[in-house]
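INTERNAL AUDIT FORM
Audit reference: QA-55
Scope: verify that the stored structure record matches its stored sequence.
Auditor: D.O.
Record contents follow.
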Amino acid sequence: MHYWVRATSSDFAGTPPQRRSGHTAVNIGKSKVVVFGGLVDKKFLSDIAVYDIEAKLWFQPECTGSGSDGHVGPSPRAFHVAVAIDCHMFIFGGRFGGQRLGDFWVLDTDIWQWSELTGLGDLPSPRDFAAASAIGNRKIVMYGGWDGKKWLSDVYVLDTISLEWMELSVSGTLPHPRCGHTATMIEKRLLVYGGRGGGGPIMGDLWALKGLIEEENEAPGWTQLKLPGQAPSPRCGHTVTSGGHYLLMFGGHGTGGWLSRYDIYYYDCIILDRVSAQWKRLPIGNEPPPARAYHSMSVIGSRYLLIGGFDGKSTYGDPWWLVPQEDPIANRLTASPPRNIPESKDVASLSDDFQPQFKESQTEKFPFSELQRRLQISVSASNSRLQIVNELEDKELLELASRLEGENVSTNSLAIEALREQWRKSESYMVKLKELGPLLRDYQRLIYRHHLERSASAQQPEFGEQVMHQFYHVKNATQLRMDDIPKLLAEYKELPVR
């Protein structure tokens, strides 16, 4: 079991990085984490913040070394790549405003000196949202990105000693071009997950690239991996962090709703187990931090440190720890921290790890606090009461029922019953976009009527009746993911109409 714990001033001295997204955070051995760049309120950043792991201290080093423009260090940027080799942090590309960058820098973290590098060989084009990883302690591999006009699928290998770039020629089946993906070197293979690709869809595929280790004499080639287990939803802007025998994926940005029309930001933790070669959900014992993408996640011993990120509306700056239950930090948890999520944002709010936050004495004996407990949902106290509208006052439902039945029925009630019967006979692919709102509200209406109104006569529902209704708390249809529709319809079909 792991727990999320908001970092406090007692965890470290100094000042953590200001809020940001699109930054990078790299581990320099086991001694420090270096955070660079990013974006906040349309302002691009070029500052450095360093966490000294042993001293538990944040500091901002005084760097030296200027480039061709005479300024110290790289220009402000976000969505660049950063990779650590020994005590050096290499930076490539990124974005400043609407400009994609193609410059190449290295920071010596022993003396805090920047150097702008002139690469040799096959130089990569300017790009942002690429992904890169170290190959051993000498080379770096970079894949994909966005050059402002098209998604990229090229693979470059950099020798950090000779500073020579080589574009890798890969034959056979290739992944779709993409940006916003992750690329993680595991032993002899580069694992690439997700991203946004050609035509705009957000992807959920996993690929492995071989042929990166010279000693192996393998021809470079891609293989798509389809692993068993609970695979993550398609996403971009997520992080994948190596932690022992598994990789930890957190967060990211996806699309949900019918026809993938709505933005979703995730806060789930998914493991790729390297031993069993399957996806798993990391058991979490409390409420996660707000959903986000374009954050950073760094491993520090048995802990993970989450910094920054963006949720479509807010840029975050509060650091969070993800720790195993035996960690001393976990002991200070007295209650699940509240989720600070603006009401107007679109977030995937369904989670296997929700914990109840309300005592039964805080509201009526049964209706809302008990339903929250039994459904394992978390709703802020000020918004816990859903607006349940009678079906004869639901204008969208009435219009939909009237269009469906025309003059074949004499009353609105009969038209609604006919519409309900049609939904009960439908497959999920038959439900149209315009029907999702009325369907969700009718689903919630029937739950309320069957389970909550029964409490007025002291009829307590059985536990088994409650646990299946996972969409009762969803405020509107825009929060539904595409793969939620079959589940919602299946639950709807099980509800009694009266």
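Auditor finding: record pair retrieved intact. Helices lie at 367-375, 395-405, 412-425, 436-452, 463-466, 485-494.
Action required: none
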